[in-house]
Design a protein that fits this description.
With about 150 residues, the chain is α+β, with helices and mostly antiparallel strands. It is about 30% helix and about 35% strand.
């Protein structure tokens, strides 16, 4: 498998939405949210991972001076465990650091052990819990941080 990472474009939203709903069901982003995020080019950076022209993952980061926030990472379930999430996360971290971020934060569903392990491998540590963070499901989020607190 050859994974290519490129910048997300508006025409990627539709194919990403079906993956988003499969991965996050009740908490899936809406088309409007993706459009809004892509429009904020001065502070946002979104990527897709492709294999043979098919989108198999996507990710985004928001950068605000010395802080950055991993907004989302999604990988098609058929490609879990193949390193696609690691490739996307590494690319986000590189972009955040290029833009001057020293501290990078994220929220991950508290019950998502697979994603938590990925973030820990990249130097993120748990910093707290946000009760009922994900809506409309009401699932808790683990806050994770990398870099100076």
């Amino acid at each position: 498998m050859t994974v290519t990472v490129r910048e997300m474009r508006w025409w990627d939203i539709e194919p990403i939405l079906s993956m988003e709903h499969e991965l996050f069901s009740d908490d899936a982003w809406t088309p409007g949210l993706f459009w809004s995020e892509l429009a904020q080019t001065s502070t946002r950076h979104y990527l897709v991972a492709e294999n043979d022209g098919d989108i198999i993952g996507y990710a985004g980061v928001g950068c605000f001076g010395a802080e950055a926030y991993v907004q989302t990472i999604g990988v098609d379930e058929k490609h879990w465990g193949t390193g696609v999430g690691s490739v996307l996360l590494a690319a986000l971290l590189a972009e955040a650091e290029k833009r001057g971020a020293q501290t990078i934060l994220l929220e991950v569903r508290a019950d998502n052990d697979r994603a938590t392990r990925l973030y820990e491998r990249f130097g993120f540590a748990s910093a707290g819990l946000r009760k009922g963070y994900y809506q409309p499901s009401g699932a808790d989020a683990r806050v994770m941080i990398r870099g100076p607190a």
